[in-house]
Amino acid sequence: MTMIFGIPVQALLGQLLVGLINGSFYALLSLGLAVIFGLLRVINFAHGAQYMVGAFVALLGLKYLGIPYWVALVLSPLIVGAVSALVERTMLSRLYALDPLYGLLFTFGLALTLEGGFRWVFGASGQPYPVPASLNWGVNLGFMFLPVGRAWVIVASLVACLAVWALIEKTRLGATLRAATENPTLVQSFGINVPLLLTLTYALGAGLAALAGVLAAPVYQVSPLMGSNIIIVVFAVVVVGGMGSILGAILTGYMLGVAEGLTKVFYPEASNIVIFVIMAIVLILRPAGLFGKEG
Question: How many domains, the chain?
Answer without folding.
Answer: 1
